[in-house]
Amino acid sequence: VLVSVICSPPQNYPLYIRSIPTENELKFHYTVHTSLDVVDEKISAMGKALVDQRELYLGLLYPTEDYKVYGYVTNSKVKFVMVVDSSNTALRDNEIRSMFRKLHNSYTDIMCNPFYNPGDCIHSRAFDNMVNSMMMQVC
Asked: Could you tell me which residues come within 8 angstroms of residue 65 by beta carbon, excluding any fewer than 6 positions away?
């Protein structure tokens, strides 16, 4: 299971949520909103060090019995959250980090689109394809 989420910084509402399988989507919404609080705590704990630091990957935010939740924050304070099945032990930290970089690059491509209004939900076929390929790679 992999859930991919991108959230807008000030309001913390999801711009994009994709989960496989889709049966427990409501549970993932709860998990994601809980993890956004953890992301905010980590950002405030780092304070000015985050601005000076070039590392955007926050690492494991918190584990549950079923899932591991990872976080990433861009320089513009856009938050990325990934929820991965705990039983997937083959997935290493470097792979999670590279998946976040791919997400960030694709998100940057969307922001460069002159027809996209920042803050709107993301409806991009290229972005969907990239996220789907990432999810298939993990599952």
From this structure: 86
pLDDT for position 110: 92
**Rounded Cα distance, 114 and 14, in Å:** 21
From the first residue on, what is the mean pLDDT of each consecutive set of 10 residues in the chain (139 residues)?
Answer: 70 82 78 85 73 75 88 87 83 88 92 90 91 80
Of 119, 116, 38, 31, nearest to 73 (Cα)?
38
Count the Cβ atoms, other than its own, within 10 Å of residue 55.
11
Q: Following DSSP, what letter does each residue of the chain receive, concatenated?
A: -EEEEEE-TTT--EEEEEEESSTTHHHHHHHHHHHHHHHHHHHHHHTHHHHH----EEEEEEE-SSEEEEEEE-TT--EEEEEEETT--S--HHHHHHHHHHHHHHHHHHHT-TTPPTTSPP--HHHHHHHHHHHHHH-
- Using CA atoms, how far apart are residues 68 and 55, in angstroms rounded to an integer? 20
Tokens, residue 130: 């990239």
Report CA torsion sign: 97, 68, 38, 23: positive
**Identity of the amino acid at 47:** G
